[in-house]
Amino acid sequence: MYSLIIAVMFTSGTNPELPLLMESYKTLNECRLELVEISKLPEYELVVSPLLSYSVAKETEDKTTMAFCVKNMKSI
């Protein structure tokens, strides 16, 4: 089971919010396909990073919002 997680990071140095579990998928491929759909929304960009693999990012002046897939939420 894979989970789609959303995390928000603030540039102001305030305490980060806990990542939110948005949806669960049976396969990693299904989860990644959902990321591709999210990346079609305005201001969201599909990113491939060494740490998170496929992810979606939205950057504003004061925060960055990331969506990514994980197999085990406890590993975050």
Number of DSSP helices?
1
Radius of gyration: 12 Å
Helix amount:
10-25%
Order of helices and strands: EEHEEE
**Count the strands?**
5
Strand content: over 45%
Shape: globular
Largest sheet: 5 strands, antiparallel
Distance between the termini: 15 Å
Low-confidence parts, pLDDT < 50 over ≥5 residues?
none
What is the typical, i.e. mean, pLDDT? 87
Structural class of the helices, strands and pairings?
alpha+beta
| Order of the strands making up the biggest sheet | 2-1-5-4-3
Secondary-structure blueprint of this entry?
Elements: E1 2-10, E2 20-25, H1 28-39, E3 45-49, E4 53-59, E5 63-70
Antiparallel strand pairs: 1-2, 1-5, 3-4, 4-5
